[in-house]
Amino acid sequence: MIPLSEAKSLLHDMGFDYEQCNERSALTLLALLHLKPMDSWADASNPMLGTRAIMDWIRDEHDVDYAANTRETIRRFTLHQFAEALLVVQNPDQPDRPVNSPKWNYQVTSEALVVIRAYGTTAYAKMLAEYLTAAPGLRRQYAAARQVNRIPISLPGGNPLASPLVDRTF
Question: Domain 4-169 falls in which CATH fold?
């Protein structure tokens, strides 16, 4: 059985701050891993799920029913940070999917999944350290996949702020 406190602890171990180690984030992680209350960490998987599917999983498997308007909160204050930390990748099936697509989805990275499955074992600390050390390289690797679909933009007048602003936005 996986207590919510373990999911919060795992998030903390992976470098998330206090704000991210809350119940909403822990439940979102469990949904992304398709872990039911009676499962073990070794049972974790990494299906692609959209925000609505995550909320449905939380409701159906963990008996927490979030209001429909919580979808944006989960997306902005949990999933966005998970993606920034490379715990999840967005749209692994189609990286160039439009931002407003109803098919937008998230998937726990295979590298993170290996560590998560080891949670609570003697190998966990070593695997976590290796994962955290490799994370900057993984960020470059996943960013390269998204870079392929970028379109160069040229603005009249050569505004020097345009390029860095566009780069930070995407």
Answer: Arc Repressor Mutant, subunit A (1.10.10)
